[in-house]
């Protein structure tokens, strides 16, 4: 077993420590991760899904990195939405170790959606909905509005933009967890102003260190303390041109 595999296994075993039949559940989860990696790298040869192609790095930079979200929030049951999921990160690794959660993967790019549908079938996981669509459009649909306990999005957009994508989906009292890296102080400040407009409060900033990779990752944990105002999300042109929290010019 490689070093990265051992680290992933140890992390999974820790997550299952309290569960009955912990060893069997951890072994099943690890087997799913290895199958997931196999499918990801096989598809990636003909469909561009990820720039991370080293098998060890898939385990750390994709799987372990996704699982660190559970160090911030880990309810027994949860409706989880992963926005801009790409090849499934961070939503699908979380689902592998928390199979009772209901997961929705939202992704705008058709080839990634095709991979997500394929890999969910191969992994034989129930309770996953893969949606081909754009966050700023679906966020206006009453069926999705305030319908999730936990919303995640990794590497999707600048902080104020991703907050506007995420807040409309989060129920009051629910949580948004964003894995981030390298936000400037200005982006962070604008994110805080955006949060204010979107009914969110920043509850925690938790640093994350992956094995052999101390590259300044952190999780931002936001609470939806009041409903997201109905005029959000705006259309994408407006979101990108005038991100929420933007300082207005003038004298
Ligand atoms: C850099 S990739 C990150 C993928 C994955 N979250 C990860 O961390 O590996 C960004 C993904 O977000 C998707 N995306 C960007 N904007 C989106 C939007 N408005 N709605 C849905 N998906 C979006 C893109 O298609 C792309 O797959």
TrEMBL record:
<comment type="function">
    <text>Specifically methylates the N7 position of a guanine in 16S rRNA.</text>
</comment>
<dbReference type="InterPro" id="IPR003682">
    <property type="entry name" value="rRNA_ssu_MeTfrase_G"/>
</dbReference>
<feature type="binding site">
    <location>
        <position position="154"/>
    </location>
    <ligand>
        <name>S-adenosyl-L-methionine</name>
    </ligand>
</feature>
<keyword id="KW-0949">S-adenosyl-L-methionine</keyword>
<dbReference type="InterPro" id="IPR029063">
    <property type="entry name" value="SAM-dependent_MTases_sf"/>
</dbReference>
<keyword id="KW-0808">Transferase</keyword>
<dbReference type="GO" id="GO:0070043">
    <property type="term" value="F:rRNA (guanine-N7-)-methyltransferase activity"/>
</dbReference>
<feature type="binding site">
    <location>
        <position position="89"/>
    </location>
    <ligand>
        <name>S-adenosyl-L-methionine</name>
    </ligand>
</feature>
<keyword id="KW-0963">Cytoplasm</keyword>
<feature type="binding site">
    <location>
        <begin position="107"/>
        <end position="109"/>
    </location>
    <ligand>
        <name>S-adenosyl-L-methionine</name>
    </ligand>
</feature>
<feature type="binding site">
    <location>
        <position position="84"/>
    </location>
    <ligand>
        <name>S-adenosyl-L-methionine</name>
    </ligand>
</feature>
<protein>
    <recommendedName>
        <fullName>Ribosomal RNA small subunit methyltransferase G</fullName>
        <ecNumber>2.1.1.-</ecNumber>
    </recommendedName>
</protein>
<dbReference type="Pfam" id="PF02527">
    <property type="entry name" value="GidB"/>
</dbReference>
<keyword id="KW-0698">rRNA processing</keyword>
<keyword id="KW-0489">Methyltransferase</keyword>
<dbReference type="GO" id="GO:0005829">
    <property type="term" value="C:cytosol"/>
</dbReference>
<comment type="similarity">
    <text>Belongs to the methyltransferase superfamily. RNA methyltransferase RsmG family.</text>
</comment>
<feature type="binding site">
    <location>
        <begin position="135"/>
        <end position="136"/>
    </location>
    <ligand>
        <name>S-adenosyl-L-methionine</name>
    </ligand>
</feature>
